[in-house]
Specification:
With 350 residues, this protein is an alpha+beta fold. The protein has 7 helices and 19 strands. The protein has 2 domains: 189 residues, Roll (Nuclear Transport Factor 2, Chain: A); 113 residues, Glucose Permease (Domain IIA) (Distorted Sandwich), CATH 2.70.70. Helix 3 crosses helix 4.
């Protein structure tokens, strides 16, 4: 299964200290261009995905957008303004641009001098909801990003764009910490979250979905990156059929059988709160997420199986997309404008 390195949270700073003149003047511009001189278009919309050697598609076909049943506003219990929280200061940013020549991973590797593999993983995860990275990446597509290396951790991407020939538009996402969220996530310019969320999923307090069922043939579930100790709950009522089987690979784990015959598996857990044979209610605490078994980073692996066939959690649960509350939109717009300005300055200086 996919093992993602956990990216430590970096404390948020005030918007104007982070962005604006100091960001533009101090950013280190890495502009290794592999062809193409397209300037980035005005603000559009974007997303999140795993890095792999992705074979280019031919310029044909149309993109099927994920089905979103409804938008879910982010709730806030205070008048606090959400803040961008990419790094501790405005020093050390790099602005990178490249034209896709072979694959997304190789393009990024050729475009930057360090942290290429990790940066490709972070960048590609941002787009996995809106772009099929196996089939839709085409030669001549354009990528831009503002990013910073972090010693011992994944790089931080503050903003990322992907100009897709297949979609005929530029996807854009911005890193931003919404009110009451424990960590930053990525948002479209219109205030909708880039990542879709499962309806009635097994975990709420995660940082990011790092892998989907269809990312690669041998991956049978979804991975949610979350700090050790995050609550894991049963999405539906059911019976706990077994715990801690194949412990070397799965670590602490739980399986619950739902009334429709679906078996839900929760792997790499920390502390368990239920036992085999126990009946649990929908939303009941099962365990705390962890980093046990064959895992190198704290996360929850969530897997569904029915009649011997793996089920896609996205299809089983359906999805929804959060929206920023009205009180945060003005501050978020400043982030978008400053990031776009920084990227535009970098392009103009080529």
């Amino acid at each position: 299964m996919r093992n993602d390195r956990y990216q430590a949270d970096v404390p948020p700073y005030a918007l104007y200290a982070l962005l604006g003149a100091s960001l533009i003047l101090n950013v280190v511009m890495v502009l290794k261009i592999e062809g193409g001189n397209d300037a980035p278009p005005p603000v559009a919309v974007l997303t999140d995905a795993p890095a792999q050697e992705l074979v280019l598609a031919t310029p044909s076909g149309s993109q099927a957008t994920p089905v979103v049943d409804q938008a879910v506003p982010v709730t806030s219990n205070s008048a606090a303004v959400a803040e961008l929280a990419p790094v501790a200061d405005s020093q050390g940013w790099e602005v990178s641009h490249a034209s896709v020549e072979h694959s997304l991973a190789r393009t990024i590797s050729n475009a930057v001098d360090s942290d290429a593999d990790a940066l490709a993983a972070v960048y590609s995860r941002l787009f996995m909801w809106d772009l099929d990275l196996r089939r839709d990446v085409q030669k001549g597509d354009q990528i831009w990003m503002i990013w910073q290396p972090v010693e011992g951790e994944e790089p931080v991407v503050a903003a990322a764009w992907y100009k897709s020939q297949k979609l005929g538009r530029t996807l854009q996402v911005y890193r931003y910490q919404a009110p009451e969220d424990l960590a930053p996530s990525y948002w479209h310019a219109d205030g909708s979250e880039a990542s879709l969320r499962l309806k009635g999923g097994p975990i709420e307090g995660y940082d990011q979905i790092t892998s989907l069922l269809k990312d690669r043939p041998d991956h049978r579930g979804m991975d949610f990156r979350a700090p050790v100790g995050t609550d894991v709950v049963s999405p539906k009522a059911g019976t706990v059929t077994r715990v801690n089987w194949n412990h070397k690979a799965n670590g602490n784990c739980i399986e619950v059988r739902f009334p429709d015959g679906t078996h839900a598996k929760f792997l790499h857990l920390d502390k368990l709160s239920v036992r085999a044979g126990e009946y649990v209610q929908a939303g009941q605490l099962l365990a705390a997420s962890g980093n046990t078994g064959h895992s190198t980073a704290a996360h929850l692996h969530y897997e569904l199986e029915k009649g011997g066939k793996t089920q896609d959690p996205v299809e089983y649960h359906s999805t929804q997309r959060r929206e920023l509350p009205a009180g945060a939109l003005e501050a978020f717009a400043l982030v978008v404008n400053d990031m776009d300005s920084s990227l535009g300055t970098a392009v103009a200086s080529r």
